[in-house]
Amino acid sequence: MEKHIETTCVQSGYYAGNGDPRQMPIIQSTTFKYDDSDYMGRLFDLEEEGYFYTRLANPTCDYVAKKICELEGGVAAVLTSSGQAANFFAVFNICEAGDHFIASQSIYGGTFNLFGTTMKKMGIECTFVDQTLPYEELEKYFRPNTKCLFGETLTNPTVNVLDFDKFARLAHNHGVPLIIDNTFATPINCRPFEFGADIVVHSTTKYMDGHAATVGGVVVDSGNFDWMAHAEKYPGLCTPDESYHGIVYAEKFGKNAYISKAVAHLMRDFGAVQSPQNAFYVNLGLESLYVRMKQHCESAYKVASFLKQHEKVAWVKYPGLEDDPEYTLAQKYMPNGTCGVLCFGVKGSREDAIKFMDALNLANIETHVSDSHTCLLHPASHTHRQMTDEQLKEAGVAPDLIRFSVGLESAEDIIADLEQALDKI
Ligand SMILES: *Cc1c(COP(=O)(O)O)cnc(C)c1O
To answer: Does the C-beta of 151 come closer than 6 Å to ligand 1?
Structure first.
């Protein structure tokens, strides 16, 4: 019988044997000892499975990666030091200088910078597109050297819903994988592989940890994309890797090729590992992820409904509201709820908005989102401040947009706090 996702949250990844510790052990060791030299040699040749250095792999990190992999319904996964590292690895694993890829322009500001500025310096070009355009319009952005399509299930900060059917068709009709950042929805509310995504990434810093305690990321592969069928496009996976004695990842590792390469090649060279200690914290978060996501969604719905009817609020964006323009799309892909994040603008001037934000007591101004503490942020003056007004508009971030992350406090208390602050305008 297949387990329910609640059980996977609590019990997967690490399995205690007789007399073993019940909670996942933290293997706080950089290295692992071997009795014979030959065995160690075979580990380096990737001929034998085993641990030899924590920059490449560590048992605690692997337990947690395995749990997230199972939650997403994938075949293999690797933890990274941050969500940024996960997004970089996910794309760089299949792109090199001279390549091109396509991403939604509504993605997280950090990822927008990484793709548009930093990767450009590496000779990889990203075209940002309006994800709401029809298929025929979006199709025009594909080029012969396009290697992947990237989007977020729910965009940060604008909480727009991705049309998976359209994006999966676009990617697959052009012979490239669809990479999805599923940070806001989490596998509790959306499993992108079921809607055609090939690779999923997360910033585990957000709901997976859930307590604002650790920065981390993960890349998960569905195993569904047939690299060999497009071998000419993916030489890194389909031709011999001279830095690994000429192994061909897609031949040697089959469905695990993508993650095997990310570990053997990118982790070896970039070293963006998650520490075993941090992985342990992420696991504590995962154990209660199901319960917390339900509560975050329930409270966010109440907060969004309250704001929607308030005379001093100009607009509210929460795809869980019945009258939201993306409600139907959200219901299609996330019937049990979206996330705890919503956006709104207050009526009046920029000064009014600042007065309102400063008057909040329970909700704190923080560069964070998606944890147990209610927090808010004004992207135009915080996370997105490096963007020009033009770029902000392109990313769909209104200058008055306030991103509000509903935590696990009482919804009544959060609403009372909002009410008294709105009264001060
Ligand atoms: C926060 C976030 C990231 C970046 O993750 P870090 O862990 O901060 O590096 C990437 N994508 C989304 C959607 C995020 O919310």
So the answer is: no
Ligand 1 in contact with 181 (CB < 6 A)?
yes
Give the separation between CA 246 and CA 243, rounded to whole angstroms.
7
Q: Name the DSSP letter for residue 176.
A: -
Indicate whether 387 pLDDT > 80: no
Percent of the chain with pLDDT over 90: 86
Tokens found for residue 2? 């297949």
- Tell how far the Cα of 314 is from the centroid of ligand 1, in angstroms: 28
Q: State the distance from the centre of ligand 1 to the C-alpha of 292, rounded, in angstroms.
A: 19
Higher pLDDT pick, 52 / 89? 89
Please indicate whether residue 218, judged by its CB atom, sits closer than 6 Å to ligand 1. Answer: no
Q: Whose CA is nearest to atom 6 of ligand 1?
A: 83
Q: What is the pLDDT of residue 103?
A: 98
Q: Please name the fold of domain 5-284.
A: Aspartate Aminotransferase; domain 2 (3.40.640)
Alpha carbon of 229 to ligand 1 centroid (Å): 32
- Please give the CATH architecture assigned to the domain spanning 292-422: Alpha-Beta Complex (3.90)
Q: How far is the CA of 371 from the centre of ligand 1 (A)?
A: 13
Ligand 1 centroid to residue 114 C-alpha, Å: 11
Q: CA–CA separation, 109 vs 69, rounded Å? A: 26
Mean pLDDT of 176-204: 98
Query: Which ligand 1 atom is nearest residue 107's CA?
Result: 13
Taking the domains of the chain in order of start, what are their residue ranges? 5-284, 292-422
Span 173-189, mean pLDDT?
Answer: 98
How far is residue 205's CA from residue 298's CA, in Å, rounded to a whole number? 21
DSSP 276-298: HHHHHHHHHHHHTHHHHHHHHHH
Cβ of 108 below 6 Å from ligand 1 = yes
Total Cβ atoms within 10 A of residue 56: 16
Provide the pLDDT for residue 14.
Answer: 97
Residue 300's Cβ-count burial label (10 Å; 0-12, 13-18, 19+) is buried
If you average pLDDT over every residue of the chain, what do you get? Answer: 95
Query: pTM, whole model, 2 decimals?
Result: 0.96
Q: Is the CB of 372 under 6 A from ligand 1?
A: no
Q: Using CB atoms within 10 A of its CB, is residue 266 exposed (0-12), middle (13-18) or buried (19+)?
A: buried
pLDDT of residue 399: 82
Q: pLDDT tens digits for 133-154?
A: 999 999 999 999 999 999 999 9
pLDDT of res. 1: 60
Which of the four pLDDT bands, split at 50, 70 and 90, describes residue 418? very high
Assess whether the C-beta atom of 215 lies below 6 angstroms from ligand 1. yes
